[in-house]
Amino acid sequence: MEYERPLFFRVMQYAARADRDVVGMVSGNPDWEPPAALREGLAEYAEADIEAFQYPPSEGLTKLRAEIAQRRGVDIEQVVVTNGAGEANYLAMAAALDRNSGDELLLTDPVYPYYPGKTELLGGTERYVPVAEDGQLDPATVREHASEDTAAILVNTPNNPTGAVYDEATMRELVAIAEDNDALLLSDEVYDHFDYSGRFASALGVDSEHRIVTNSFSKSMAITGFRVGYAVFPEALVDDAKTRHMLVNVAGSQPAQRAVLTALQETGPDYYADNRDLMAERVETFTAALDDAGAEYTTPDGGFYVLARFDDFPGTLDNVERLIDEAGVAGMPGDAFGSAREDWLRFALVTPRVEEAADRLAEYFR
Amino acid sequence: MEYERPLFFRVMQYAARADRDVVGMVSGNPDWEPPAALREGLAEYAEADIEAFQYPPSEGLTKLRAEIAQRRGVDIEQVVVTNGAGEANYLAMAAALDRNSGDELLLTDPVYPYYPGKTELLGGTERYVPVAEDGQLDPATVREHASEDTAAILVNTPNNPTGAVYDEATMRELVAIAEDNDALLLSDEVYDHFDYSGRFASALGVDSEHRIVTNSFSKSMAITGFRVGYAVFPEALVDDAKTRHMLVNVAGSQPAQRAVLTALQETGPDYYADNRDLMAERVETFTAALDDAGAEYTTPDGGFYVLARFDDFPGTLDNVERLIDEAGVAGMPGDAFGSAREDWLRFALVTPRVEEAADRLAEYFR
């Protein structure tokens, strides 16, 4: 098999086996409480009638799809609840390739490493579009790379790993480029609740038959292990996506969907705002320490990650392991995210020990 | 897309919308309680530390894989926990096709309808092997159909829809045929706890690098909606299967895996035996009524289903809908399971109203 298993688990295992205390900044696991209603929903479900323990509808609990549809302003028939955004992206990419209007997926470089893996699994070809130094994606560059071979343009906003947030004009132009090339814009928006810039714009804001939006509750509700995500498909593509979902997974897991439904219904905006503010503070703390360490870095406009570059310390797996052993901080190698950030390291700020990690880095590199 | 969405949901929707009381015998949803420890495990998990709400290992919780490995007598490294047997079968079939040793999957006729759908999704070709009138699969017939084009032989024992249970000699010979054709035997054993004949033999009993066994807790613990299953792979194939699992689903749902782990550890053999005995009684009740109705039928040696044939009433979707409206019993059309049982109807005995349904059928057809 050609496609590669993403490196995350390997780096986490190395850190777990290290002979010293290590601050883990590898994975995007939120370190805060899920909504209280989520725990309540799960506890209530544990006492439910036996019917509730059997197959949910393949496309997801109807009430959950209705809540999502209402919040996102789309028709419930367009919503498929998936096993996290991972499956949502898999279905979206398959939908793009199954249209037989090109076999190329335009990805950004740097890239979230699951995207090329999924592309190869599905028999597509990836083509990389470079982003600007600050992580912004210039639609004009995307247009240059698009052609009749393009099946889809796949973007992630707020972005992992760059922290870039694409504004409304960018999203509108990306959809237009997809339309002009008989392709789809696939917009993965799992970090949408973590926009520090106020400029985030969902692709759902652009009405078109040429875009699919994926999302999940993993980050917004701090439940990466529940595996509840969704995709919003154009009407013409939703039936085939449901079929593939059914043939691969039959359905998603009902306990997780029930708990998410309760949490979605009963959690107010403060929960989301508080966690976003917490992350924004961590960005300030971490980047201040990077200044002290003399590092170059991008200040994220959204998401969980900071990319940093230290002198003479390229972002290889070897250096990541060295940093674990010698500084006690575990990040991700930049070269795991394509070629454009090979010299960089990615740090996930979802740990209460951000300040400690920053101090360790400052001391190590000073 | 060529592959077809299985009919189950469509028939259930028709029954739900009927203008009269209908006994549902469509889907294989157990109608009994899950193990008490399963509910307890879920309630405990609802109060767990936040770490427990994040990604489980992609291949499944280590303790759950260890329990499975120990019970099945295999190495833990061979076990991948999946989103139900649905995903386990998808991974197993992909593993067979990815070996590039043939693109044909030998399926039985009658067939569980998800198998041809998955075969087409994965770009394989299905070839059907007829079974005997009583549902038994003659390995000599399988050998006649096997060739260098064969990627895998896919069997289900106890069988859905025939109720056949394949004995040890059969399983041994099926593995040998796979070996002789550089193919894999894929054995889907989700009904293994519902063997009324005492002759069930898992393919795990035959040591070979040429077999994959899939299973789930959906039927044995009455939790089809939890989506916890597993596959046992040969060492040489397990890494690629884990990669595909990671690229499609990232991981399974942790609440469901936790609850299953607790239930697996704390549930004694009586739970499983009681439910098997209940089903065996229902088989007797239902087949006795079929005798009264003058129907032809196969007495199942295992599993949840009875295939029955009524005079001048072929197993079409039209007739299934007529039976819902006129007799108040919902079954599945035999022609949904291939061509060999086109004249038959399949009834799932997972309802407390088996006797009532049987009486209705007897009255309708008498």
UniProtKB/TrEMBL annotation, chains A, B:
Pfam families: Aminotran_1_2. Keywords: Aminotransferase, Pyridoxal phosphate, Transferase. CDD domains: AAT_like. Its EC number is 2.6.1.-. One of its GO terms (biological process) is amino acid metabolic process. One of its GO terms (molecular function) is pyridoxal phosphate binding. Its cofactor is pyridoxal 5'-phosphate. The keyword Heme does not apply. Residues 21-360 form the Aminotransferase class I/classII large domain. The keyword Aminoacyl-tRNA synthetase does not apply. It is an enzyme of class 2 (transferase). PANTHER family: ASPARTATE AMINOTRANSFERASE (PTHR46383), ASPARTATE AMINOTRANSFERASE-RELATED (PTHR46383:SF3). Belongs to the class-I pyridoxal-phosphate-dependent aminotransferase family. Homodimer. This is Aminotransferase.
